[in-house]
Amino acid sequence: MTSGMPPNQSAGRRAALALRHLVLLGFAGFFIIPLLWLVLAPTKTDYDLITRSPLALGNFHNVRIAWRHLNGFGNHIYWRWMENSLLYSLSATALALLTVIPAGYGLAIGSFRGRKLILTLTLVAIVMPGASLVLPIFLELNAMGLIGNALSIILPFAFFPFGVYLSYIYYATSLPPGVLDAARIDGCSEWATFRLIGIPLAKPIIALVVFFSFVANWNNFFLPYVILPNENQFPVQVGLSDIFESTRPTLALAVLIAALPVMIVFIASQRALVRGFVSAGSRS
């Protein structure tokens, strides 16, 4: 006796699978081809970028030329922009972690007046365009005398509403209430319960918050563009607008280097995320 699907159902399933793969390949090509063009652009000259195939490979001599142009641009100011971006992004992400995880934990397990209002305001802050907040942030920082200071970029991103809501959802759905009750019965204070149980269980969400917060800070353009008066204080995203005056291969190389920290944080966050899920599963 043979088992299996009827021939017409089997053929239909294969056709659906082929169509799914075709759609996925189309989307992959849509996103991968521009990245390949960007990676190959520094290997060409300006003329090659216009006349040759977008995915044609040039030579590494052109990469060295683009590197020399980038390194000498504005008396090595590009590397100053990279240092500024790392300072702003890492500092704001560290401060965001100090506020996001406790806020999400408190909103998930707490029962206090105004809790729903805070959740609503957090959602409103998530959906509001960032550009609409630049003017009130500017006026507030100006009143505090922080315009032109590194803190004027770091402090506004110390509160990360998306991370707060992400932490709230995670704790509300994944935190066993019985574990918290057992800790309180054993005499743990609320702070000790959060430190001994809440934080270790939050490894997966910490990795996500770090990644999303760092990317948001690294790609921050409009606020530094408005607030920082000196180009020596610019992050790399603002500084890239000045490199448009240079050659296209030099600009492509600058963009590739500027994307490297985001790639590194993404890889590190993925590893931490997997470790967090494995450790959480072994405890359950």
Question: What general form does the structure show?
Answer: flat
- Please count the helical segments: 14
Percentage beta strand: under 5%
Largest sheet: none
- Total individual domains: 2
Q: What is the helix fraction of residues, given as a range?
A: over 70%
In CATH, the homologous superfamily of the largest domain goes by the name MetI-like
The structure class reads mainly alpha
Low-pLDDT stretches are: 276-284
Mean model confidence by pLDDT = 83
CATH architecture identity of the largest domain: Orthogonal Bundle
The count of DSSP E runs of length 2 or more, i.e. the number of strands, is 0
Report the order of strands and helices: HHHHHHHHHHHHHH
Report the CATH C-level class of the largest domain.
Answer: Mainly Alpha
Q: Roughly how many Å is the radius of gyration?
A: 25 Å
Q: Ends: how far apart?
A: 44 Å
Brief digest:
This protein is mostly helical and 284 residues long. It has 14 helices and no strands.
Notes on the structure:
Helix content is 75%, strand content 0%. The chain has 14 helices and no strands. It has helices at 7-40, 46-51, 60-72, 77-109, 115-127, 134-143, 151-154, 161-174, 177-185, 190-201, 203-218, 222-227, 236-243, 248-283. α5 (115-127) packs across α8 and α13 (236-243) runs antiparallel to α14. Residues 276-284 have low confidence and may be disordered.
